[in-house]
Every structure is written in structure tokens, then in C-alpha cells.
Write a structure and sequence with these properties.
Elements lengths: L24 H4 L6 H21 L5 H8 L3 H22 L3 H4 L1 H21 L3 H33 L6 H28 L22
């Protein structure tokens, strides 16, 4: 009985498909260019701008003190109201985005800071300043906790083969950069383009002058 053997030099069937799958972008370490990458920078920008907005009124408190003549202890309370708002937010709403979703909590944080800015502009007496700073602290606490985690998640989705170093750098830059940029811009405006601090009181009416651009 004759044995049939396969010639090792026989041609390969061109219709035969290679079962080995093609490497995916994640296995090669390449970044995904899509919504996650764009969302990463969008959230980073919102993070920085909101932090700047929350810290922007700080240089004006001394002007309010000069206008209304309240004590230094009252000025300390205004700054402390912000810290109290941040602490309350971190303790109560720090992990709420795990259930409600990152976008919803970020939206609420931005709206809280816009509300605080509205109160600050329209009610510039001591009670208004205290309320505005407390509400701003609530929003900043929610923003910081949620945006930091969200940036890490978006980075992991866009660049799954890389570490979280980029997310940490962007988060820190947005946080500290926004905190520094807001007072800097407001201070420059207060120095070179006098900012109206609200209606003049009887004690400051004689020295009050409205800027030309107001």
C-alpha cells in the first residue's frame, strides 16, 4: 500500500486565511483619537476655567473692606467660608459622581460657581460675600474631586497602554493654574482698570468715582 506524503515545497492555498488577528491600537500602545481624547482636554479646560472663576474675587475683598469698613476678622470669615464650603462638599459629595455620573456632577459644580459669581456681583455686602464664598466652595469641592477622577478615566480610555502621569500633570496644572490665574487677572483689572465694587455707601460716597468704562 502506497503512502501519500505532502510535499513541503507545495504552494500554499491562497484562499487560506491566517487565524492570527491583527494587532489592535491598544496592543501597540497607540493613542485612540476620538471622543475620549477630545473630552480629556475639554474637561481639563473646564476644570481650569472654573477654578479661575472661583478664585477671581479674592483680590477685591480688601477693596470691599476699605469701602464698608468691616474688621479684619470679618475678612477672615469671608475666606473661611470658602474653605468651609470646600470641606462640606468633599465630605458629602466627594463620591456622588460614582452613582450620578461624572458629567452631571461636573455640570452641577459649574452651575454652583456661576451662581456664586452672580451673588458676588449683585450682593456685595458682607452677608452676600459670605454666601457667595460658601456656595463657591461647594462647587469647587465637587469640581476638584470629580474632574480629577474623570481626567484619569478619560486618559485611560484614550491611552490604555500608558500610565496616568499625563492625567496627573493636567489635573494639577488645571487646579493650581486656575487658582493662580483668577486672582492675577482680577488684580490686574483692579490695578489698571478700576472695578466697581457695588453702590457706594455713605462713608465712601465722597471718594467714590465711577470708572469711565462702567
Amino acid at each position: 500500500m502506497a503512502l501519500h506524503t505532502t510535499d513541503p515545497a507545495s504552494p500554499v492555498d491562497p484562499t487560506h486565511s491566517d487565524p492570527t488577528p491583527a494587532p489592535s491600537p491598544s496592543s501597540t500602545g497607540r493613542a485612540h483619537k476620538g471622543p475620549s481624547g477630545l473630552g480629556f482636554w475639554l474637561i481639563g479646560t473646564v476644570f481650569a476655567v472654573t477654578m479661575a472663576t472661583g478664585s477671581a474675587p479674592a483680590p477685591l475683598y480688601v477693596l470691599y473692606q476699605q469701602r464698608d469698613g468691616f474688621a479684619s476678622f470679618t475678612l477672615t470669615l469671608i475666606f473661611a467660608a470658602y474653605a468651609a464650603g470646600v470641606a462640606v462638599s468633599l465630605l458629602t459629595a466627594g463620591h456622588i459622581s460614582d452613582g450620578l455620573g461624572r458629567r452631571r456632577v461636573l455640570t452641577a459644580a459649574v452651575l454652583l460657581n456661576l451662581l456664586a459669581l452672580l451673588v458676588f456681583v449683585t450682593w456685595s455686602t458682607v452677608p452676600g460675600l459670605l454666601l457667595a464664598r460658601f456656595v463657591s466652595g461647594l462647587g469647587i469641592g465637587m469640581l476638584t474631586a470629580t474632574a480629577t477622577v474623570y481626567l484619569t478615566e478619560l486618559h485611560a480610555t484614550a491611552r490604555p497602554r500608558q500610565g496616568s502621569g499625563r492625567a496627573e500633570v493636567v489635573s494639577t496644572a488645571a487646579n493650581l493654574g486656575g487658582l493662580g490665574l483668577g486672582p492675577l487677572v482680577t488684580g490686574l483689572l483692579a490695578q489698571y482698570a478700576p472695578i466697581r465694587c457695588g453702590p457706594p455707601t455713605s462713608s465712601s460716597r465722597s471718594s467714590w468715582s465711577r470708572p469711565a468704562w462702567w
